[in-house]
């Protein structure tokens, strides 16, 4: 598990490989990741946006951004966790992701970024 703390907010990431799939005659490697967001700060915060940089060793870099995560903009009081699962399709069996969440402190209305550590996406055969 990969972890990083920004302004008292801990991000933990765990990945898994879920096999392959063909779409439009193209082979894709399917990866999923589970993210736990822990609010260890003293303030209530809300996740408003996400920004991802996805590296695919055969297809370069893709940027993904937008409102919330998996259709939600969770509010986290102090000492509350939020967990979600998502995934991505790569054209290679080796890649990585990193990014950040834009949060707002609901007491001061200050916006800030919480960084998501770089995590690897690789098939089990590459790990041997």
UniProtKB/TrEMBL annotation:
One Pfam family in the UniProt entry: DUF525
Membrane-spanning intervals of the chain: none
GO biological process, one term: error-free translesion synthesis
InterPro entries, sorted: ApaG_domain, ApaG_sf
Source domain of life: Bacteria
Domain ApaG intervals: 3-128
Protein's name according to its UniProt entry: ApaG domain-containing protein
Organism encoding this protein: Polaribacter irgensii 23-P
